[in-house]
Backbone:
């Protein structure tokens, strides 16, 4: 089991895994979150497709990377919430 899959399970989240478990795509509140693990493990890179949160961030822990990405994917304007 890969660290990203373990992190998803620890956080009780679901995401789309690719690249043998090194890439996860999650649906945030207002944008999509991407987390990539290097082939040797840490670091983890995270980014969102929201215009205000497109910068790549680096984390040394998979859980922290996922949580940070989801925080960045929150809506700043409540009127932009995606429908379930």
Residues:
């Amino acid at each position: 089991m890969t660290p990203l899959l373990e992190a998803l399970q620890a956080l009780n989240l679901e995401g789309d895994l690719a690249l043998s478990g090194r890439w996860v795509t999650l649906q945030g509140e207002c944008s999509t979150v991407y987390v990539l693990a290097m082939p040797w493990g840490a670091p983890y890179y995270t980014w969102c497709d929201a215009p205000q949160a497109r910068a790549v961030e680096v984390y040394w822990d998979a859980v922290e990377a996922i949580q940070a990405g989801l925080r960045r994917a929150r809506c700043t304007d409540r009127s932009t919430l995606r429908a379930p």
Observations:
- The CA atoms of residues 45 and 58 lie 5 Å apart.
- The chain has a mean pLDDT of 85.
- The chain has one domain: 3-74.
